[in-house]
Amino acid sequence: MDDKNEKRICQNCKQSFAIEPEDLSFYEKIKVPPPTFCVDCREQRRLAFRNERHLYKRKCDLCGKEVVSRVSPDKKYPMYCTNCWWGDKWDPYSYGQEYDFSRPFFEQWRELFFKVPHISIYNLNCVNSDWVNQEADDKNCYLNVGGHYNEDSAYNTYELYGKNSFDNCWAINPEYCSFDIHCERCYFTHFSEECENCLNSILCYDCHNCSNCIACAGLRNKQYCIMNEQYSKEAYEKFIAEYPYSSHNGLEWWKKQSSLVWEKQPHRENFIIKTVNSTGNELSECKNAKNCWQVTKIEDSKNIYIGGWIRDCWDCSCFGAAELVYESAHSGGAYNSKALLGCTSSDPLKKMTIANVEYSYMTTSSSYCFGCSGIRGGEYVILNKKYSKEEYDKLLAKIKKHMNDMPFIDESGKVYGYGEFFPAGFAPHGYNETAACEYFPLSKEEAIERGFVWSDYKSDTTYEFSDYLIPDDIKDVGDDILDKVLKCEETGKAYKIIPMELSFYRKVGLPIPRSAPLARHNTRIGRTLPRKFFKRKCDNCGKEMETPYSPERPEIVYCVECYQKEII
What we know:
five-stranded mixed β-sheet; 33 strands; alpha/beta; 12 helices; nine-stranded mixed β-sheet; single chain
């Protein structure tokens, strides 16, 4: 560890972590003390407030209409449907509280947080897309999460500008694509990873500008290739006709062939593209981005997980369009703000209309707000109570001092003063309902011991599975499948095929999946690399490198220099 770094002990996991000079410069710039949690514990805590996929039917506590909700029916705090929440039939200022200097700030904020109505689901400007969450500007979409500007698509995670695409993870500009991971600008491409500008391809890895390829890896500007072998157009089409992937058994055979090809192909130590002086993985068009993962267009920032269009920010998860933001999650369009939860502008990828907002939840298009919940278009507000500018400035200075003089101490003894994110025990969802459980899996006992919330809610909805046998080939699947309740081969849970999904499989010639959407998502997450570095030697030149590929993994991994000589 560099001698210039300060060594601290995380008050959560008790492990040593470093605070580097660049960190201290940022903290000084935004006027916060250094964190007391390590980087991983900080991200885990933020993600514990993000429920992406556990959706329920619950009645709106204002209009009584049953809607799709992130909030399960057993949660005691109020929940409004999107129409009511954004409507004018309630006033967030009616919940305003006077600040009480005899109690810690976080204790007062928790009372407000669970008193002000929560919105049923996070989506904005969506058309015919009731079942999408954390999405904006979708049309005719179903069970998409974390993306924007998608159309006629379903079961995607972090998809941007997608059309007629299903079951992708981190896909940009896909069209008629499915089961892809980290792919950009692809068309009719399926079961592929790390591909760009590919057409009519399936089961390809790290292929760029390729078309009509199957079970290939590491190709550039190729067409009509099978298992990295060149074919003529006629021979290619004949081979595919003899070994079709339109059947379940045929697709499984092709998956085995592709895995053999992928294992033999050198893997790049990381995927950092068009990027300068940056570390992490899955970075594109970034500059001075340190420890960043799955990001694009990031500059002078650190510890960013899934985000884009960000400058001079530290410790943000699922974030877009921001500058000078610290310790915030699932927000966008923010400037000079800290500890944001679900705070956005009307267009989080284009406008910054959250400014000088701290410790706030679902506070939209507002500025100079502290400790607020549900404020829309507000200014100079503390705990949902309005103040003049002079009153606000004076009171805020006292509150920040009070947060350190009388910090909140949770049941396990962890101390929360000014600069710390919200305590994990304040999360409105069970740990097992959140994205944190995907990246930092814990058992119920472990989660509770570490101060997280857990949900034991189980829907009383029961399904009677049909005795329907899914035909092996998509050509033999009739419309009657739409009426059947299918049983997931992995989890035993019920799932159905929706009409636009069936139309998609028929058009692209893929078999009906045998597992439910959530199981398919978990499989994709399991294929992504961990958000951490391992020391490992290049399998070509022997140079030591830091890479997300652990030494125990079977892949052949090359440093960037060797990879470029071999592949490009």
